[in-house]
Design goal:
- With about 575 residues, this protein is of the alpha/beta class.
- It is about 30% helix and about 30% strand.
- It contains 15 helices and 29 strands.
- A hairpin with a 4-residue loop joins strand 27 and strand 28.
- Helix 1 packs across helix 6 and helix 2 crosses helix 3 (about 60-70).
- The termini are far apart.
- The mean pLDDT is about 90.
């Protein structure tokens, strides 16, 4: 089993530990520089009382330094997927300090500029309680999961033995965050142990990916949410030539999305099945015509629980040697593999009736009017009564019905279809039709995100103050000019960033679509984004303008954000089938 600290301590200080982008140029970060930052964080952790520390940093190299420094100081590190107030309140019950980029309310700690540690380079033993991670929250409230250092190092050793030879010394580029167990292992711990360079930033936009992946030999660590949205109009040839492997985790990647990604990137994504509690369990590559069976990772034993039909696993990635029963139902497949049949825990009670959320989602997809669907339990608008809410991405026929007859017609049709499958009490009372499901930095759709779409939970504003300035109609062209002011309490400023709030680019694109649909008869569906550029940041409480032009002949929405300071962002959004 690899000794992470010995490996990093023995590496040539002049070797490249990673890359950090500044002013559109990637600059190398040496191993010596990384070790110096580990020492700075270690010194900070040593002079900070307590055994438990929360850690949040966007930069993966600085995160790696803080994590290793905290471990060297004997601190158990608690990770959170975000820095929202509710997450921090929950962390505060268990930790003694906050390290990194938490909101000022929590008095986050950073090393001094001249901070250093004179102690010899060393690491804790394998039984050290290194980490507490949290489940994704995709089916409810996130749960805290403790991890010993031995569990993490065991998984890193397994991944290197299975996939490492084909990867060589390729750089690691990711779309996912290291604040979750998948990103932590694949983007930070595994590269550090294997001597591969880490790219400090997570890349959110396909245009960034296409450019970065084509620069040198690399590996892409992504999620299904990112891989299934790779636009085919971008030139991926350089990326395909440089890529050595593509990984996906966080949920199953649909077969057609796997084939499409392989066509663009030159590699069939290796999907990793696991969880925060189990670590990696199995893997697969989806080839056309294959059943999509999963093969256990080396050192992982599995069996099917006779009473529930659920998967049970045993491995060194777990905290003990016992069998752990998961929530996923499985069946056996040839060559000692297994097929996933869906989760066994998605049964809820509505009006004392047991309802399967999986069955409702399957029925919605079977209607032919939905391409994706998620169903959750939520509070009714008034009172404590629980009802079901359905979030639907309409299929081509569903979009046609929406455009021709409206939401109520599609609601009625889907409810009628469900009426033949489930009892009336199980029919969703609240419906949302989306262009895509929301997903977080791990590429997962969380229960909290879906509740937020219904206006349940966090009450902070999600839209700016808007004033219409100009409107032009044909024959002069469909155009509107809006003045926007973003309140400092905006939900999307949380964690983006602690030092100075910056409006995320994805929110700017979402608002362009929102107000485009509000002012124009924009075609249903979404085809892609062209010429997307972000030139200057948008800050709170400073007025700026959004100009929208809609070309109905080509189903194209042109947008640009600008102010007296110049242009902030712009691009073209393509709609239609």
């Amino acid at each position: 089993m690899v000794d992470l600290f010995s490996v990093l301590g023995a590496r040539d200080g002049a070797a490249i530990a990673g890359w950090r982008k500044a002013a559109s140029v990637s600059t190398p970060v040496s191993v010596a520089a990384l070790r110096a930052r580990v020492g700075a964080w270690r010194a900070l952790a040593l002079r900070t009382p307590g055994a438990n520390a929360a850690l949040y940093l966007d930069d993966s190299l600085e995160f790696a330094a803080a994590l290793l420094g905290a471990w060297q100081a004997g601190k158990t590190v608690w990770l959170s997927a975000d820095t929202l107030d509710a997450s921090c309140v929950a962390l505060a019950r268990s930790v003694d300090c906050f390290l990194g980029e938490f909101p000022p309310r929590w008095t986050p700690l950073h090393p001094r500029q001249d901070e250093a540690c004179a102690l010899p380079w060393s690491g804790p033993d394998a039984s050290f309680p290194a980490l507490v991670v949290h489940t994704s929250g995709s089916t409810g409230e996130p749960q805290a999961i403790p991890k010993k250092l031995s569990q993490l190092i065991s998984e890193v050793s397994t991944l290197e033995a299975l996939f490492g030879p084909a990867m060589g010394d390729a750089d690691i580029i990711a779309t996912v965050s290291h604040q979750h167990i998948y990103g932590l292992l694949f983007k930070v711990l595994w590269p550090l142990a294997a001597g591969r360079a880490i790219h400090a930033a997570s890349l959110a936009f396909p245009e960034q990916l296409a450019l970065m992946l084509g620069q040198r030999p690399c590996v892409l660590v992504a999620s299904p949410a990112h891989l299934k949205r790779l636009p085919s109009h971008l030139d991926w040839r350089a990326a395909a030539a440089c890529l050595r492997a593509v990984f996906s985790s966080g949920g199953p990647l649909a077969p057609d999305a796997s084939v499409a990604a392989a066509h663009l990137l030159g590699h069939v994504p290796a999907e990793i099945y696991g969880s925060s509690e189990t670590g990696g369990v199995a893997w697969r590559r989806h080839h056309p015509g294959s059943p999509g069976a999963w093969e256990a990772l080396p050192g992982v034993a599995w069996r099917i629980a006779p009473d529930s039909g659920r998967l049970e696993v045993r491995s060194h990635h777990l905290g003990d040697d016992g069998w752990l029963e998961l929530e996923d139902r499985v069946s056996s497949a040839p060559d000692a593999r297994f097929l996933l049949l869906g989760r066994g825990d998605r049964l809820v009670k509505i009006e004392e009736k047991r309802i399967s959320l999986d069955a409702i989602e399957a029925a919605l997809l079977a209607s032919g009017f939905a391409s994706e669907a998620r169903v959750i339990v939520c509070p009714e608008r008034a009172g404590e009564r629980q009802v079901l809410a359905a979030f639907v991405i309409a299929s081509a026929s569903g979009r046609a019905l929406l455009g021709a007859e409206g939401k109520q017609a599609l609601n009625a049709l889907l409810r009628a279809h469900l009426g033949g499958v489930v009892e009336a009490v199980a029919l969703p009372r609240r419906w949302r039709y989306l262009d895509q499901l929301p997903f977080n930095a791990q590429g997962k759709t969380t229960h909290a995100q879906l509740l937020a779409l219904l206006g349940v939970g966090d009450a902070r504003p999600r839209v700016p103050q808007v004033r219409l300035i100009e409107r032009d109609a044909p024959p002069n062209g469909a155009r509107v000019l809006l003045e926007l002011v973003v309140p400092s309490t905006l939900f999307y400023f949380d964690g983006h960033f602690t030092q100075a709030p910056v409006l995320p680019g994805v929110v700017q694109v979402d608002w362009a679509i929102r107000y485009g649909r509000e002012h124009f008869a924009v075609a249903p569906g979404f085809r892609g984004i062209h010429a997307l550029k972000f030139q200057q940041v948008v800050r709170p409480d400073v007025p700026f303008r959004l100009e929208l032009k809609y070309d109905s002949a080509n189903c194209t929405l042109h947008f640009r954000y600008f102010s007296d300071a110049g242009q902030h962002a712009g691009g073209r959004i393509l709609f239609g089938p």
